[in-house]
Specification:
The complex is a heterodimer of chains A (305) and B (230). By secondary structure, chain A is of the alpha+beta class. Helices cover 76% and strands 7% of the residues of chain A. Chain A has 11 helices and 4 strands. Chain A has a 4-stranded antiparallel beta sheet with strand order 2-3-1-4. Helix content of chain B is 32%, strand content 27%. Chain B contains 7 helices and 12 strands. In chain B, the strands form 3 sheets. Chain B has a 6-stranded mixed beta sheet with strand order 8-9-10-5-11-12, with helices on both faces. In chain B, strands 4-1-6-7 form a 4-stranded antiparallel beta sheet, with helices on one face. In chain B, strands 2-3 form a two-stranded antiparallel ribbon. In chain B, a hairpin with a 2-residue loop joins strand 6 and strand 7. The chains are: A alpha+beta (305), B alpha/beta (230). At the A-B interface, helix 1, helix 8 and helix 9 of A face helix 2 and helix 3 of B.
């Protein structure tokens, strides 16, 4: 492998970048902004997706029974449910257990005292876990039939479902806004970079002419511009990453700690560090693809060899 | 070595056919010749030069260089062809921010030459054109005649078989101009074909070498030891 042409081509590309440094800076900054926006939305979507998943996996159906339902009827239903393939676990919660859970959850002493073992309005219930959260709908349908309406007071599924649906709606909203902003900024950075490379080609007109005259091969004339373009991408992705780390650790983390507590901050940080390679990969790929794509386009359009 | 057979060239500008810039040109140039191509502005000198360095393609006809029809060269073959033909222009075409040495070395660098080759060749060529003493100067710091020498050095760096000079003395005073022509003659004596396009009568008359006179895109005369006649 002959490294000399590669070295010289890279050097020419770097020289281009430096000679047009103000324009290069503008291109790089616009690209940085684009990458930041893209990765911010990617992170937001990831966080919301993860939250939705977590809630989904924790989701179960709790069937609350009327006080008129007999223990036999409840045991019957429990058996029927347990025999279903899509049910992984059915747990009976007696009035006493329900009281225990209630008292554990309530911190306010006065509310705690509202319910006592002698005067216990809390219903008996069955907590049903499914093998797959998406099957919960079928179980819900099964329980909602008239056969059980006599003994069942309430099914909790509907409430949870509303929360999940809301989360899903937010996710899709964030995704749409993300696509909108990302494409807007991609368009802007593409235009800026196209123009920068075009100017670089014009300012180096004499040099290109001489290269042609002395018999420089095509790659020597064209590839330096591709190097220049990809440099925008590489520098921008590094800058975007640095800004993102600073943004999360210095700006967002203290705010989150102040308003949502240290636990959430830890979650956010660990989420960021565990997904950092994914974020770097996205930034790098988008940056390089835009940079190289733009320079290739400009070369085709403005560089006649 | 160089053969033009029935070469015509017309530029099509926006569909309208303009008169032919070159009309049925037939020239044969043998090894070691020094040929001056003369004629008024618009006679077709520049077009002929452009055809010879493959900058333009003829509308009809063949151009054989070393028995190869350069009209049919593929774009990927062009760089290799251009390395075998050195070209010098009136406006020197030197890079202002590079030194004399770097300007000449640049021609080798972009053609994938090894550093040892560059270190070896560039000083020798600069010495040949008498510019070794100025190797670290920028083109802005030397005279027009010296710049043209550097430009000739750059054209010679690939050891071409043919050197084409398009009005190389156009920007120079008579003394400097003559020095450049003497340099071209010296290069010619080493075996390189020199094709000189000029409208400098004094030079052509003094050279006493082959002169091809162009007028209106046609060859009017082709004399082996000619002078400048219009």
């Amino acid at each position: 492998m002959n490294w000399i042409p590669i070295k010289r081509i890279t050097k020419l590309g770097l020289t281009n970048f430096w000679r047009n440094r103000w324009l290069s800076l503008a291109s790089t900054l616009v690209m940085t902004l684009t990458l930041l926006i893209i990765s911010t939305f990617v992170v937001m979507t990831l966080v919301i997706n993860k939250t939705t998943d977590r809630i989904k996996s924790k989701m179960d159906i709790t069937v609350y029974f009327k006080d008129t339902a007999t223990t036999e009827e409840i045991a019957n239903l429990q058996q029927q449910l347990a025999s279903r393939a899509d049910v992984s676990e059915v747990k009976y919660i007696s009035k006493e257990e329900a009281l225990g859970i209630w008292q554990e959850q309530q911190k306010n002493q006065r509310i705690k005292e509202l319910v006592s073992s002698t005067e216990n309005p809390l219903p008996r219930s069955l907590a049903i876990k499914s093998t797959n959260p998406s099957e919960l709908n079928n179980i819900n349908d099964y329980l909602s039939t008239d056969d059980f309406s006599l003994i069942i007071h309430k099914i909790s599924y509907e409430e949870n479902k509303a929360i999940i649906d809301k989360l899903l709606a937010i996710t899709s909203f964030v995704k749409k806004i993300g696509w909108l902003f990302s494409s807007l900024f991609i368009i802007v950075s593409v235009l800026v970079i196209l123009n920068t490379i075009r100017l670089a080609i014009f300012t180096r007109k004499d040099e290109i002419e001489i290269m042609r005259l002395v018999g420089a091969s095509d790659k020597f004339i064209k590839v330096p511009f591709v190097v220049e373009g990809s440099l925008y991408g590489v520098i921008a992705s590094v800058l975007a990453l640095v800004l993102m780390v600073i943004g999360i650790y210095v700006v967002i983390a203290p705010l989150v700690t102040q308003y949502l507590g240290a636990g959430v901050t830890e979650n956010l940080k660990s989420f960021f560090t565990s997904h950092i390679f994914y974020i770097i990969l996205i930034q790098f790929l988008v940056g390089i693809v835009i940079g190289i794509g733009c320079s290739m386009f400009s070369i085709r359009k403005y560089l006649k060899v | 070595m160089i053969e033009l057979i029935g070469v015509s060239k017309s530029y099509n500008l926006e569909g309208a056919k303009s008169p032919k810039a070159l009309d049925n040109i037939n020239i044969h140039i043998g090894k070691g010749e020094f040929v001056s191509i003369v004629g008024q502005s618009g006679a077709g000198k520049s077009t002929l030069i452009k055809l010879l360095i493959c900058e333009e393609r003829p509308s009809t006809g063949k151009i054989l260089i070393a028995n190869r029809n350069i009209v049919q060269l593929k774009p990927s073959e062009l760089p290799y062809f251009r390395r075998k033909v050195g070209v010098v222009f009136q406006d020197f075409k030197l890079l202002p921010q590079k030194t004399v040495y770097e300007n000449v070395a640049f021609a080798l660098e972009v053609c994938e030459a090894y550093p040892e080759e560059i270190h070896d060749k560039v000083p020798r060529i600069l010495d040949l054109v008498g510019m070794l003493k100025c190797k670290d100067k920028l083109p802005g710091e030397i005279s027009g005649g010296e710049r043209q020498r550097v430009s000739i050095a750059r054209a010679l760096v690939h050891s071409p078989k043919i050197l084409i000079a398009d009005e190389p003395t156009g920007n120079l005073d008579p003394i400097n101009a003559w020095e450049i022509i003497e340099l071209l003659e010296r290069i010619n004596k080493r075996g390189t074909i020199v094709i000189l396009a000029t409208h400098n009568k004094a030079i052509v008359d003094r050279l006493k070498r082959r002169v091809i006179l162009l007028k209106g895109g046609k060859i009017v005369s082709d004399q082996m030891k000619g002078g400048y006649v219009i």
